[in-house]
Amino acid sequence: MGRPVVTPAESVISARYGNGQIPNDEMVQVAPELGRFGWLLPDAARGWHAMAAGAWAAGFRLDATGMYRSLADQEALFVQRHTPHLTPPGKFWRLRWWRLKPGMATAARPGTSNHGKGRSIDAAEETDGDPAPEGLTSRLLAWLETNAVSFGFSWERGIDRSEPWHVVYFLGDTVSPRTLAYERAGHPSTQNPPEVTMFVVATFGSTDRWLVSASNGRPVRTAIDPAHAEPFERKTGGLMIVTPAWLDSVTVAA
Ligand SMILES: [Zn+2]
Q: How far does the centroid of ligand 1 lie from the alpha carbon of residue 37, in Å?
């Protein structure tokens, strides 16, 4: 099965700012990637969260190694992966032609990446139980090829074959019916793998909170009593998706 490519709808939020210049309080935090939190536009985060839960229900631990990138992040990545030349071919940037180093994944010219619009994710998979995710298995990739569009994600034109892990949220400031159905279902309780650090999640735009697995984004218990949520946050040092107002009211440990 091929990988669907859908032209992403513009988000009002990201259109208001330059690429890689979206302030954190316009985005939400989602599952940690390699020891830090990733950031996405709110509706992209909702789609990602629902898709991670869908993947979990199918037996996969969907994770990520990259989400939003600031312009400075993108510049650093671009310079790391390319060598500058005075003549083409390459990508033209800052009066030089930049050619990809052998064996490197591509990095978009700074200011043009969908990562800088808060809507791209480098997907990964947790397969060995440690905190660092592994690359996507062919089985999870096949699941994504069948299911990602129903959560609002597709691959990116031009790199859909070379970067199967790079997905883009194409629904702008809306979510899919499947994501809505997931949110309305109330997230059934499941077993909590003891080795997995747990995080508290609050959905954007509501006061509902759940416990979720930090490694795969799957909710494990519904409707935490708000009175219990705050001490739990302090103990585990984690939040996953939060409202900006709520984020302002709590301290997130490193
Ligand atoms: Zn990417």
A: 16
Q: pLDDT (tens digit, 9 = 90+) per residue, 199-236? A: 555 444 445 555 544 444 444 433 445 554 454 444 34
Q: How far is the CA of 66 from the centre of ligand 1 (A)?
A: 7
Which helix (H) or strand (E) covers residue 180, if one does? helix 177-184
- Per-chain residues with Cβ under 5 A from ion ligand 1: 122, 166
**Where do the structural domains in the chain lie, given as residue ranges?**
12-69+113-184, 197-247
Which residues make Cβ contacts (< 8 Å) with residue 85, sequence separation at least 6?
A: 96, 97, 98, 99
The residue that leads in pLDDT, 5 or 180, is 5
- Distance (Å) from CA 62 to ligand 1 centroid: 15
- Cα(119) to centroid(ligand 1), Å: 10
CATH 3.30.1380.10 fits domain 12-69+113-184: yes
Taking the model in full, what pTM does it have? Answer: 0.73
- Radius of gyration of the chain from Cα atoms? 18
Q: 20 Cβ partners below 8 Å, 6+ apart?
A: 69, 70, 71, 72, 73, 74, 110, 111, 113, 115, 116
CA of 107 to the centre of ligand 1 (A): 8
